[in-house]
Amino acid sequence: MGIPTTLTNVWIDSRRRNGLLIASPLEEKKIRDAKHCTQEGVRAGAKAAAIACVASAIPTLVAVRVVPWAKANLNYTAQALIISAASIAAYFITADKTILECARRNAEYEIKQVEMKGAARHSN
């Protein structure tokens, strides 16, 4: 008899996920900001990857049809690798820059908020 394993696993997982500690409002805001920065980075990276895919696919496919060396040496796998490498690089570079820019913006905003609170205390 006893508790079924599936219920035990669900209870254990929910305890691990929620934990025993409650996050402060400041920590919750930082978590929300981090999720927002990550989503913004993914969105910008996907746009850059799509553009890079088109920008690298057109010359690659034209070269395979026109240039004799490319026609002889670049099979379908090589063409796919050229196009996907450009797309992957564009995605990660853009996502990284966007996330860092967003984090920098959030840090500057927090510094301004602290300075404004300090100035308000000194003026009273």
TrEMBL record:
Top-level taxon in the UniProt lineage: Eukaryota
InterPro entries in the record: Enod93
Q: Which residues lie in coiled coils?
A: none
Q: Where does the chain cross the membrane? A: 48-70, 76-95
One Pfam family name from the record?
ENOD93
**Keywords in alphabetical order:** Membrane, Transmembrane, Transmembrane helix
Protein name per Swiss-Prot or TrEMBL: Early nodulin-93-like
Organism taxonomic ancestry = Eukaryota, Viridiplantae, Streptophyta, Embryophyta, Tracheophyta
